[in-house]
């Protein structure tokens, strides 16, 4: 059966012209049914073959792409890249792999480089990688994973599943967990600079919050600008030593020079470079921080009934003790005048009496301290009047000191005044001691005391301790 080449109309046997369109047909140009259905050759047409080949190639391409993307976004591949970056110390590569667990954590190459150092120092990298691989297995089974920790138990990182790429491939990332950093200093109004942030610590009791950071090699700068000194220092924060539960509390202690100030009048006011501090010597334990380059000058002033008196000005040129002593004739002018007027009754000069009393008091104090340390009342008893209250008081006091394990040493005694009275002599002293306690601590103390002495011939005895007042104390 034949058909028209032009319109496809069915032609009769030996029909030369198409009855439908008029197309002339010759025998060689007739299209048979077999030819029309494409079955005469037994193969697909060229166009069909090309189409089929394109489909096959596309399928292969999609399969290859699937394999590549599956490998690229596989959790094992992420862990392998992490291991390689840490091992090679490649902060750039590691920065691309890390993801902060909080919005406030900022990552850059510098912080990531410090993080690599921290991991190498404070954790077993091989063990860490092993734990990450174990997390990949758990995550593929959709099981919960826990954050991995450093040697001190602080959480540092974990493997996390992120959003799907192209809606098909889950993305995995190393999520890093920050440390919260808080800092203070041992001085007031210290400016701290950490990772470009500047904050001021108003008092040692205040911790300033600097935010969240990766653990690693981090330094903080501290600057103190005071009235008498400028102090600067730089500290490296030992995250592993001071961190607990991912909280770092660090104290940037500045070391300044301090001086101890002594005086023979502890109610005197301290002056620095001509300006009053508003504090007495008694109120100041250690003075500082202070420059010891000679730029600071100290003196003390005290108001007596006769007027204001002043010590010499002393330049602070080294760390240690500064003695701001008044002239005794100015400080004790009233007592000195009284001494000049009194006699012992036999016409001897007061200068002789003063020397004798001073010698007696120093001898008494020396033997008193010796009796305390040797636990022997008989050492000091010859200096005490048995008829006076000091005799039994001293015996009982020695027993108390022995029970407490306290020992002493004298560091100085000064006669502040002498007054002849009807039945004896009143002696005012300033006595300084180092007192040591049984727990290993010690204190330097100074007392203003008044003693009453009796006299029999040329022999003096301590009758009673009228009063005593502690005017200075500091740890030693």
Tags for this model:
476 residues, alpha+beta, Immunoglobulin-like, five-stranded antiparallel beta sheet, four-stranded mixed beta sheet
Provide a descriptive summary of the structure in words.
This protein is an alpha+beta fold and 476 residues long. The chain has five domains: 2-36, no CATH class; 74-176, no CATH class; 179-252, Immunoglobulin-like; 257-329, Immunoglobulin-like (Sandwich); 335-475, Nuclear Transport Factor 2, Chain: A. The protein is 29% helix and 36% strand. It has eleven helices and 27 strands. The strands form seven sheets. Strands 17, 18, 20, 21 and 22 form a five-stranded antiparallel sheet that branches. The protein has a four-stranded mixed sheet with strand order 4-7-6-5. Residues 255-326 form the TcaA 4th domain. InterPro entries: Mem_prot_TcaA, TcaA_2nd, TcaA_4th, TcaA_5th. It is found in: Cell membrane. Belongs to the tcaA family.
CATH topology of the largest domain: Nuclear Transport Factor 2, Chain: A
Helix content: 25-40%
Report the CATH architecture of the largest domain. Roll
Shape designation: rod-shaped
Question: Total strand count, please?
Answer: 27
Main sheet properties: 5 strands, antiparallel
For the record, what CATH class of the largest domain applies?
Alpha Beta
InterPro entries: Mem_prot_TcaA, TcaA_2nd, TcaA_4th, TcaA_5th
Pfam family, one: TcaA_2nd
Family: Belongs to the tcaA family.
Domain TcaA protein NTF2-like: 354-465
